[in-house]
Amino acid sequence: MKTATIGPAGSRVSFRSQGWITVVVVVAGLLGAWVLLNAVIGGRCDQTCVVGSLAQALRLATPIAFAAFCGVMCERAGVVDIGIEGKMLMSAMTCYAINLFGFQLLRDSMGAEAAGSFSRILAVCLGAGSALLLALLHAVVSIRFKVDQIISGTVINILAIGVTGFMYRAFLAENLPAGPGTFPIISIPVLADLPIVGPILFQQKPLTYVMLLLAFLVQYVLFFTPWGLRTRAVGEHPRAADTLGINVFRVRYVNVLAGGLIAGLGGAWFTLEAVDVFNPLMTNGLGFIGLAAMIFGKWTPFGALAGALIFGLGSSVTSTVSIFRPDIPSQIPQMLPYILTIIVLTGVVGRAIPPAADGQPYEK
Amino acid sequence: MVGGFFQQSSVYMPLLAIVTAFVLGGVVIWVTSGSLDTVFLAYEGLLRGALFKNRGLSESLVATIPYIMLSLGIAVGFKAGLFNIGVEGQFYIGAVAAAWMGASLQGVPAIIHLPLTVLAGAIGGAIWAAIPGFLKARTGAHEVITTIMMNYIAFRLTEFLISGPLRDPNAAAVQTPRIAPGAELWSLYAVPERLQDPLNALLVALIVAGVGFVMARWALPRLARRQRDEGRAALLNSALAQAGVGVVAGLLAFAALPALTRLWWPFTDQYDRLHTGLFVALAASVGVWWLLWKTTIGFELRTVGANPSAARYAGMSITRNIMLGMSISGALAGMAGMMEVLGVSICRCLPLFFSSGYGFDAIAISLLARNDPLGILLSSFLFGAMRNGADLMELTSGVSKYIISLLQALLLLFVAAPPIVRWLYRLRAPGGREESATVTRGWGGQA
């Protein structure tokens, strides 16, 4: 058994000072991707194409970043959460169903446009709520009953596959009414008209903005508030935190539940931003990729965002390549994000030091 | 005696979990369908479809076979402290490797081709599992994420191979070429016919001889211990006697089986898909039990799984055992995929988008069985029967057959978290510490 100890001074990376490194990595990644992209497709990607592909990278990074923030919240408090995938899947299914059927109920009374936006917002709330329920299950099973956290997370994943699969086949597979569709793109006034930056950053769908704001919010909560200090203390050395009067269980519960809400937003992305259908297993491992982004980002929200952007960039570049080079079998580039995840996990890119008490149930 | 058996928590807890899952599943059916009768209609249809309809039992067994292999694989991993969620991917790679080996040789007799194809499936799965094993041992990358990533890579890779390099150019559908007759895993119906070929009879005789030899090694020394006469005891203990039993068993099988199976054979339904893989699965479960509890290798695996620092202190190589545990686990999973191609698939090939979903169920099975080979046989049959009975259930009651996956997920929840079941039934925890799996060790890049 690994005991929870805080290493000697200096052995633990000061997380906030690492910010500029991630910035450098991201910028280098962007430039490298652009060069690589043009090398593969023979210089046919002009400025519009590059801008489009970068905007797409941010779009594709959104669910990964949500998953990574969920992971950061949980693991900073010492709870490993591999059930993010399941929570996102559950939320994606709930969002789709609520959006569709809420719209049917409301359309006659409030008109199509208002009903559409109302049902989408309702869907996000209830989707996050469904993920919250799974998070509560994970919390009770792993914190209160002290079941191994990875087993508990796997149970969440399989439970979500079972529930969503059943609901899909029972209610969502056929005879569906026309739905209100996904969120529209929201252009931020003035900023959206900026050259290059505008189309990339300020012409996105709402959840992407939420994700960017959340990065700042989580960073602020974890590193600049008493709650964040308590969370990190519980994640590093729960016994010491307990001695100082911090309620370890309460901190862990709240963080796991907050993580659940965040993962729920990530799930909403799939059916309210990306596509207007629900497929069983549509999350495609992005929850796990989010965990890799979290590890890459050394358990900080900004770092996790950087990791998510790199994964998003990888996916967007491969899809651009497959547009220009249809002769390359699409399966080969599709493997890349998963291979990248494995490489990140091996620690080749950035040595990772998890919170010391990560994954250990606390016995009072 | 029986009371004592049911008082063991390893027996009553899974049973309570199963009952609770079915009751909760019933509530879900009740709520979604709106009538209580549907619940009974559904469960009656499930039972009838699983056991009593025409070929019901044999179809249940067909689904049981891969479950046994995959959950044995997960159990071996668990015992070595590894949570191999990637059996699904290893299943795919085993299937592709077997499909390739089965189709690339033509006209080779089964006595050479079948073992080669089986081996290809096992090696394919083993390599696919050894990669995360290696990464865990060397860099500490946790196998739970890496094996899942390997799953997705395996799905894309098989898709690419089936639609590209391995595609059958003569078939309309996107699939691999049909495997050669020599590589087919015999259906039980076809066994008498197959045995008419002396080479096939020789293959069976060799297997029987091997089994006879192993059983003699186990039984003869026990007989020898009872002997008063030392000469006889020495004879029974000698390798010659053990080999003799094997040879005699093999010769008898070679001489008698082709004629005997012609005279009488229980499997007379030519549409029965049950295949000889059943014996492979049974042998594998005995083999895994023997490996884990009766050999030095198994002892080392279990020690590394239970307490890596103690194992290291005792001079065992962590790296070697992690690699070994993952490889054995993957080989079993790969053989499951191999059997699906060689024995079950109708085209005797690997079609595009063949999806099994066996892998995740197998996690539930091995947790339900607490990684015990006998328990795995029983739990696998439960899952196989549910999977097979679901169709008739849907037909007779109108309840979507995917309620099964919900049932299985609930079951998994209750077996993974015994405190929930205990709390539901107000049971006291057994004295002493209960064995519980710990796989969160070394999370996130620290070996």
Q: How would you characterize this protein structure?
A:
The complex is a heterodimer of chains A (364) and B (447). Chain A is an all-alpha fold. Chain A is built from 13 helices and two strands. In chain A, strands 1-2 form a two-stranded antiparallel ribbon. With 447 residues, chain B is an all-alpha fold. Chain B has helices at residues 2-6, 9-33, 36-52, 56-79, 87-104, 110-139, 143-163, 191-195, 198-226, 230-237, 239-263, 277-294, 296-306, 308-313, 318-344, 358-368, 373-397, 403-416, 418-424. The mean pLDDT of chain B is 86. The interface between A and B is large, with 53 and 57 residues.
Topology, pairings included?
The complex is a heterodimer of chains A (364) and B (447).
Chain A: H1 19-41, H2 47-76, H3 84-110, H4 112-144, H5 149-172, E1 186-187, H6 197-201, E2 203-204, H7 206-224, H8 226-236, H9 238-243, H10 248-274, H11 286-296, H12 301-324, H13 331-345
Antiparallel strand pairs in A: 1-2
Chain B: H1 2-6, H2 9-33, H3 36-52, H4 56-79, H5 87-104, H6 110-139, H7 143-163, H8 191-195, H9 198-226, H10 230-237, H11 239-263, H12 277-294, H13 296-306, H14 308-313, H15 318-344, H16 358-368, H17 373-397, H18 403-416, H19 418-424
Helix pairs in contact in B: 2-3, 2-18, 3-4, 3-17, 4-12, 4-15, 4-16, 4-17, 5-6, 5-7, 5-15, 5-16, 6-7, 6-15, 9-10, 9-11, 12-13, 12-17, 13-15, 16-17, 16-18
CA-based shape of chain B: globular
The Cα radius of gyration of chain B reads 23 Å
Using CB atoms under 8 Å apart, which protein chain pair has the greatest interface? A-B, 53 and 57 residues
Gap between N and C termini of chain B, in Å? 46 Å
Summarize the biggest pleated sheet of chain A: 2 strands, antiparallel
CATH topology-level name of chain A = ABC transporter involved in vitamin B12 uptake, BtuC
| Strand coverage percent of chain B | under 5%
Return residue spans of chain A where pLDDT drops below 50 for at least 5 consecutive residues.
1-17
* N-to-C span of chain A: 17 Å
Task: Sum up the overall morphology of chain A in one term.
Answer: globular
Number of helices, counting only DSSP H or I runs of 4 residues or more of chain A: 13
How confident overall, as mean pLDDT of chain A? 84
Structural class computed from helices and strand pairing of chain B: mainly alpha
Number of strands of chain A: 2
Order of helices and strands of chain B: HHHHHHHHHHHHHHHHHHH
H/E element order of chain A: HHHHHEHEHHHHHHH
